[in-house]
Amino acid sequence: MVRPHVESHLIARIGWLRAAILGANDGIVSTASLIMGVASASPGTSEVLVAGVAGLVAGAMSMAAGEYVSVSTQADTEKADLARERVELQTQPEAELDELTQIYVARGLTHDLARQVAVQLSANNVVDAHARDELGIVEHLEARPIQAALTSAATFGVGAALPLLMVILSPARILIYSVAIASLISLALLGAIGARAGGASVLKASARVTFWGAFAMALTAGIGAIVGTAV
């Protein structure tokens, strides 16, 4: 007896993985940048800590709201397209069958075979066939607003907690350096974890995330120092 060949593709993770990496990256970079900017302008640890906590809460809520709104827009667009497709399938079934046939011809099938495939798939589930092959809507890439919002908010909080921890543990005189080093290490690890989960190059992903994180933190710290000096 031959056992069925079962595959688990990494693309199925893309929905929550994108939101998780975005949230954690933003949590580390934005909170560390805020802390370094405030610390450059004001040496008081309590002020820096308050600013960091406020940044964590505001950032997590902003990420959740932003992800929910943006992914909801995607979901609404998908639903609208599917609704229009259902109407067209009811009113113009032959035209829709021709359209599906041409899609398969464009992918390399002969016209006769493409027609057979279109007819058979339409008989099985015509809406799914058009959703998948005409609109590009597939189950594992379907918009999930709540999942994206919760994932982003949670990972933002985890990411933001890392630089905040350094504010509590580090002496004031080396606070900026401690936050910067810890944040860069965290970004490198985040890039590696994301690449590992997504099957990409660990070195390339870590370098990319770390570089842009360092750039953002350096720019914010510089602006904070200039403003602090001017004030």
Helices, strands, pairings?
Blueprint: H1 14-41, H2 45-91, H3 93-106, H4 111-133, H5 145-169, H6 175-198, H7 202-230
Helix pairs in contact: 1-2, 1-5, 1-6, 1-7, 2-3, 2-4, 2-5, 3-4, 5-6, 6-7
Task: Describe this structure in a few short sentences.
The chain is mainly α. The chain has helices at about 15-40, 45-90, 95-105, 110-135, 145-170, 175-200, 200-230. The longest helix is centred in the first third of the chain and has 47 residues, at about 45-90.
Kindly list the characteristics that best describe this protein.
231 residues, 7 helices, mainly alpha
Structure description:
- By secondary structure, this protein is an all-alpha fold.
- The protein is built from seven helices and no strands.
- It has helices at residues 14-41, 45-91, 93-106, 111-133, 145-169, 175-198, 202-230.
- α2 (45-91) crosses α3 and α6 (175-198) runs antiparallel to α7 (202-230).
- The longest helix has 47 residues, at 45-91.
- It starts with 13 loop residues before the first helix and ends with a helix.
Structural class: mainly alpha
| Shape call | elongated
Q: Into which percent range does the helicity of residues fall?
A: over 70%
| Total DSSP E strands | 0
Count of helical stretches? 7
Low-confidence stretches: none
Distance between the termini: 79 Å
- Mean pLDDT, to the nearest integer, reads 81
- Report the β-strand fraction as a percent range: under 5%
| Rg measurement, Å | 25 Å
One letter per element, helices H and strands E, the order comes to HHHHHHH
Largest pleated sheet: none
